[in-house]
Amino acid sequence: MTEKNRLDKRIFELHANVCKTLSHPKRLEIIDLLRDEKEMGVSEMAEKLGITKANVSQHLSLMRQQNIVKTRRDGVAILYSLANPKILVAYDALRKALKEQLEADGKLLENFNMNSNSTKQHWEKIYQTKDTVREVSWYQDVPKTSIDLILSTGVDKNANIIDIGGGDSKLADKLLELGFKNISILDISAKALEKAKTRLGEKGKSVIYIEADILEFDTESRFDIWHDRAAFHFLTKREDIIRYVEIAGKLIKPSGYLIISTFSMNGPKKCSGLDITQYSEDSIKNTFQKNFSHIKSFEEIHATPFNTKQNFLFNVFKRR
Ligand SMILES: C[S@@+](CC[C@H](N)C(=O)[O-])C[C@H]1O[C@@H](n2cnc3c(N)ncnc32)[C@H](O)[C@@H]1O
User: Fold this and answer.
1) How far is the CA of 232 from the centre of ligand 1 (A)?
2) Which CATH architecture has domain 3-85?
3) Fewer Cβ neighbours under 10 Å: the N or C end of the chain?
C-alpha cells in the first residue's frame, strides 16, 4: 500500500468516526448551539436541549474524543466550543440537501393528490351527467368476453373477484346470476358505485363497493380474479403504471388471475376525453412480466352505443 493509500484509508476511518459521533439528533443540536463561535457550559446546554446535565456531558465527551468540540476553562466554568468551525459547512450542506428533498417530497405528494383529485372530479362528473347506457362509449349490455374469460379460469363460485374501475358495468350482475358469491367493485367515483348499487338492489347485497383510487388501494383481502376493463389504460405515467402492477402483484393470490383489457395499438388514443396508454401483446406482457405468467391476449372490436368501433386488447395472466 502506498503512503497516499494509507493516508486515504485513515481519512475514511476518521470520517466514519466523526459521522458515527454525529449520528444522534442531540449531538447535531449541540453543533447548532455552538455555531457563530459561541461558547457554552454544560448547564446552559442542558437547559436549551431539554435533557439532563449528565446526558449532555456524555454527548460532549464523545464529541471531544473525535475533536469536534474543544474546552476552555473560565474560572470554575468549563466552556465548550467547536474545535473546527468548518464542520458547520458540512452540517449546513447536508441540512440544505435534506430540506430540499423534503420540499421535493412535499411537491410530489401535492402533485399526486392534485392528480388524484382531478381524476376523481372527472369521473364524478361523467357519472353525474351521463346516462351510462346511452351516453358512455364503454357501455356493454352483456360483458360477454369478460364473463367467458372468468369462466375459462375454472375458479369456483366462492372465488374472491374484484372488478377494478368497475363503474356501472353489468359484470357484477352477470356474475351474481352465475352464482358467484364474493364480488367487489372498486371505482374512484362514488356516483358510479351508487348507480351500480341502486341497479343491483337486493340481489347485490353481498357485493362490496369500494370507493378508491386504484393507486391508493390496499386491503387485507387477496383475490382469485382481478378484472379490469378500460381502467388501467388511463394510467399514462410510468410511475403510476409501475404502482398499479405492484398493487395487483400484491393483492392477487399466487395462481390467481389477472384479466385486463385496454385499447389496443389499433384502438383510440383517448377515452372519455382523457389520454390513455395503448397496449400491444408484447408491451402488456412486458409490463406485467415481473409477477405474472402470460396466458393469452387477443383483440376484440367493441361497438359503442354511438355505433363507432373501438379496438380492445384482452389479456389473461396468472400470478406466479
Ligand atoms: C372507461 S370506464 C370502464 C368502466 C367498466 N370497467 C366497464 O367496462 O364498463 C373506466 C372506469 O374506471 C374508473 N377509474 C378511472 N381511473 C380510476 C382510478 N385511478 N381508480 C379507480 N377507478 C378509476 C372510472 O371511474 C370508470 O368507472
Assistant:
1) 8
2) Orthogonal Bundle (1.10)
3) N
